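Chain A, query sequence.
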Amino acid sequence: MAETLAVDRERLVADLTALVRIPSVTGSEEAVADWAAAALRELGLRVEVVKPSLEAIRADPDWPGEEMPRTDLPVVIGRAGRGGGRRLVLSGHLDVVPPGDPATWTADPWGAEIRDGELYGRGACDMKGGVASILAAVRTLAAAGDLDRLAGELIVALVVSEEDGGQGTLAGIRAGVGGDMAIITEPSNLDVVVAHAGAITFRLTVPGRAAHASQRREGVSALDRLFVLSRALEADEARRNAAETDPLMTALGLPYPTIIGVVGGGEWASTVLDRVTADGRYGVRLGQSPAAAEGELRAVIAAACAADDFLRDHPATVEVTGGRFGSARVASDHPLPVSLAETVQAVTGRRPALLGEPYGADMGLFVNVAGTPCVVFGPGDVRVAHSADERVPLAEVEDCARVLAAWVRRELDGGA
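Chain A, predicted structure.
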């Protein structure tokens, strides 16, 4: 069994508290990136803050989309050890989604309140708890003198813009972030995610024909036509999920959900709607690119329009408007999940499950763009991510740090 390194819990909690108290909503991450760069410098890493041209990153053929306006894209990269050997990456994102209605919270979303062993706040689970674990792991290795003895290179990549597609990680990859293996500390309850689906966001613009409400039969309601398309999407969702055969994904029940989350239209209560827009999310199947998923979506809408008397001549339009999360898969017997699972068991006494997940993550960019085997392993339960009273168990944050430190030592120093 590998020696378990001690983690400075007080500093870990202080780091997580500081991170949660910085309101780093996607598109406004400059302050948290400055904090992260200073934290990595304090740990003795060689730190670079990459700020690519937004025009250049948007022109990249692998650009994963975006949903929030921004003027900057700061990516914090820390390095320890030496090049020429094996390279490991520990990565986490610093941006968070908006907190929503404060009245739905029992804690201040930016307060980092600790209650019953859990720290509350927007981003505590997704995924500042995981970022704090990375910092604590590096601090642990530095205190033990291991950073000076690494037989290879450790890269810490703290990125932004994950929540709306992942262009921060793409910028990091273009700056040289990648290697032999990578771990992203997204919430996984300290299980190991070896496969995940992806997702694209879309907008349907559905036409109708206006008429006075008293003569509604003279018009065609765009809302009624949206219902036609919604039913087609429901049938498509059922077909796509029934066709999946990978046990990791079938175990999820609905690995590739389709949802319409925003609907808008109409200008006058007594006028038949002549235009409705609907924004939604469409799952990217395992092994499928976002572009291929877009093709499936367009085909479903085109077929539904062709079968409708009105939409046949006045078809709805489809736009892909936001994030383009690709799917990803690492073989369960790959050395990365094997060595990580063995390290988790050695450190915690628990053998982690190897899982598939229905959400998109930066893992897809590491695997598909950087050619870097990658898994997700981190503290917290994704079911409380993006929710009111988002929180993370501090014991899991600490255990994650202990595992990461032991895993880096095992892979780059042979200390098992």
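The chain is about 35% helix and 20% strand. The chain has a mean pLDDT of 96.
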